[in-house]
UniProtKB/TrEMBL annotation:
One of its GO terms (biological process) is defense response to virus. One of its GO terms (molecular function) is hydrolase activity, acting on ester bonds. Residues 1-83 form the CRISPR-associated protein Cas6-like N-terminal domain. It comes from the Bacteria. The lineage of its organism: Bacteria, Fusobacteriati, Fusobacteriota, Fusobacteriia, Fusobacteriales. The keyword Membrane does not apply. It comes from Cetobacterium ceti. This is CRISPR-associated endoribonuclease Cas6.
Amino acid sequence: MFYSLLIKIKAQKSGKFKFFTGKKLHGAFLNIIREADRELAQELHDKDIPKEFTVSNIFGTNSRKFKLEEGQNYFFRVTFLNDRIYKIFSSEICKNILLSRGILIENIPLSIEEIIYKDNKYSGIMDKIELESKRYRLIFKTPTLFKSGDFFIRYPEINLLFKSLLTKYNLYGEKKIDESILQFLYEINYEKIDLKLKREYLNKFFIEGFVGELIIRIDSKNKDLVEKINTLLNFGFYCGIGTKSSIGFGQVLVENLEGAEK
């Protein structure tokens, strides 16, 4: 199963961020896991393949521009692509660390006010998807880009988008999806493209990718193909799309525009 948790935080003092907060929250997340399971934390840190978790930025923040106000509440989310890491993060050890200590981002202390497990558009659980919807809206909340060889692509080419989803799904999904479905991507089209480029700054460089909205239409009459595309699109909410997703890039909301569940 795949999981998404929404975490409510409160700024204990005011301050401005210099860099993209997803990277800093990612480091804080690994430190919390390290206290509960040092071996797992090292394993997660060392992996070259897409990691089995993502940590978003603080919602609504922009590096070098956003100021947190003391006493105000903010949110970020964490997703998990396997049961092992989710169970450790949800353990009493990790919850006690979070709730008692909070986290520190660029010298701004943040207390953890609440961990929200469900009933929110940013939280939930994906078990088995049996959908045959043919229209989806993807809302890209943070810069999204793809790596192709030595180049970065800042446009949602359909083959790169679905290859990204398929690669991650076949790493962590229980039932694998054959790569042959990539041959049928000509049956998927964009109804709407409303995107712009956005930069976020890390320590010594910036990353630029697209944000905004896509509406995807699946034109295939092949029921099996439609179900697999539905699975991959819904999985995108949990895994993120494109490169650097573990530190908060490629965060996407996925909306089924037909809502027809079997």
